[in-house]
Amino acid sequence: MNGQVVMNKYYSHDILVIGSGAAGLTLALHLAKYANVAVLSKSALNEGSTWFAQGGIAAVLDDQDSIEAHVADTLIAGAGLCHEDAVRFTVEHSKEAIEWLIDQGVNFTRENGKTDYHLTQEGGHSHRRIIHSADATGQAVHTSLIDQALQQSNIELFEHHLAVNLITQADDGYPRLRCTGAYALNHNDDHIHVFQAKVVVLATGGASKVYLYTSNPDSASGDGIAMAWRAGCRVANMEFNQFHPTCLYHPNAKTFLITEALRGEGAYLKLPNGERFMPRFDERAELAPRDIVARAIDHEIKRLGCKCVYLDISHKSPEFISEHFPTVKARCLEFGIDITKEPIPVVPAAHYTCGGVVVDRNGQTDLEHLYAIGETTFTGLHGANRMASNSLLECIVYARSAAEDILAKLNAIPQPDKSPAWDESRVTDSDEDVVISHNWDELRRFMWDYVGIVRTHKRLERATHRIKLLQKEIAEYYSHYKISGDLIELRNLATVAELIIRSAIERKESRGLHFSLDYPNKSPVARDTVLVPANFAGQNLIISKNRSVAEE
């Protein structure tokens, strides 16, 4: 090599998992005994939405509870759009999913002096069925899964690798494209490398960063949804964005979520004058589903012209609060708020993407050998409104199901052709990165203002005009300048924003998380909003020769 540095590297594995949260690591651990697996993490392993999840995991673990009750609660919360078969499949596998997590070393909270696990109750649930690890369940789960993954010789972890595009291939004698890998930007060397695999799995999380205020970490930029859409996969129900009712309102606090478990354990929502207001909106008061609580808070803030409302658990004993909510207590104290003595200022913030890439029960997308699991997907579980703590459960259940399906098919999948390296020869370094930061800010602001908790047709039309202009600018920038992480995420967010806007325009009713002042009533017929890309991967192809196709 005469000292020449190879800029673009080539990696080959049986399975490529894009995303290192609960879904991605669960799948990788189930496959590691039988195949070699690459896991891409766009930042450090201990970042992402799983790590910051506080509440817990819903599962039928108590003799007083039942699968039928959990199913019924989920269907009610989903406002008529849940697919009952997906709900039942998830709930029926909830206990074994929790048992598997316990086997991985997750230390769930137990009752005082007892061997039984402590179960809490959250909005929309009719029973105590939320198993948790104090108020840092995501961190406990993620830590255990990371520890297990690091011990597996067949799992190769790539931190600070951001996927750019999926790679697809056409084969002689077969009528469909298949996914054979991805290009990924390595933040450590600032070059794009090729990751080839028989099977690719998207586990990239949601897209809440498309909004100005969100409870999610910076990584929630809809990467998997955007990549799948560009590669020809359908997406569904992107208009249903869940806004968590209670995020800490403080000028120095960035995206700190106040767990719903506080309300489950008796916290009250109050106006600035100390008056409770949730009983006026719903008979379940503070335990109403999140969409109702978020709209109620939004209504009161706009009605009164105040900046926030307050969540008060100070009527509980300091010992109770310290035992059940140590993370919330410690974090609030950093900002001078003692939750044992005073209420917490809160506002709603974008929290969860209920729609996503259309998949079947095994996580298979429209593109052959491309799977998707977790918040990236549309499984039919959440309907028009995700019920609290069903999301981590979905990650584990569908990851296990996808792993089983992949293993059944893996040996029959031929090795992919070697894909060409990413071409960086025709681009230059940009001296105008301010364009990216400006467009990033503009996108998130108009999505918050025009496509937020309450929508109108006029606002959605304005958002449509804005997104078209932004996408034109982004495409031009993407074509001429060297790719950066911010540009990749901005491009993906713009794609996701367009999908959300298009889906919201198509829904001529108010249902669940989608509330329109122009269409305030619920339609008697419930339909999913399914968007089909022009290059739909489910269509047959006429193939003249072997070729690899990389999405531009």
Shape: globular
Indicate the low-confidence ranges by residue numbers. 1-5
Strand segment count: 19
Helix content: 25-40%
What Rg is obtained from the alpha carbons, in whole angstroms? 23 Å
Pairing-aware structural class of the strands and helices?
A: alpha/beta
Main sheet summary = 8 strands, mixed
Terminal CA distance reads 31 Å
Number of helices: 15
Mean pLDDT: 92
Q: Strand content of the residues, in percent? A: 15-25%
What would the keywords be for this entry?
8-stranded mixed beta sheet; alpha/beta; disordered N terminus; 19 strands; 17% strand; 15 helices; 33% helix; 552 residues; 4-stranded mixed beta sheet
Quick overview:
With 552 residues, the chain is α/β, with parallel strands linked by helices. The protein has 15 helices and 19 strands.
Which secondary structure elements does this structure contain, and how are they paired or packed?
Elements: E1 10-18, H1 22-31, E2 37-40, H2 49-52, E3 57-58, H3 67-77, H4 84-92, H5 94-103, E4 119-120, E5 130-131, H6 137-150, E6 155-158, E7 161-170, E8 178-186, E9 191-202, H7 223-230, E10 235-236, E11 241-248, H8 261-264, E12 268-270, H9 290-304, E13 309-312, H10 318-324, H11 326-334, E14 344-353, E15 356-358, E16 370-372, E17 377-378, H12 390-409, H13 434-450, H14 457-480, H15 485-506, E18 530-531, E19 547-550
Parallel strand pairs: 1-2, 1-9, 2-6, 9-16, 15-17
Antiparallel strand pairs: 3-5, 4-5, 7-8, 7-19, 8-9, 10-15, 10-18, 11-14, 12-13, 13-14
Helix pairs in contact: 1-6, 1-12, 3-4, 7-15, 13-14, 13-15, 14-15
